[in-house]
Amino acid sequence: MTQASIDGLDALSKRFSSEFPLVKSDKEATDNYIAKYRTDAENYIKLMPENDQTIYNNYLKKYGLA
């Protein structure tokens, strides 16, 4: 996997870690945040090089996350 893809996925993870605690006490805010985050993450993954997408999807399958 390219370093750029790794860095982007890491940035998404860090973003979630810092932003989610701000909304977790409110169900509607949580639902809205998760929907927006999911869209952003899916869009980022679609922009990764095809080989990186394959590696990422294989990782998800390997660990039962897909």
TrEMBL record:
Top-level taxon of origin: Eukaryota
Protein name as it appears in the record: Uncharacterized protein
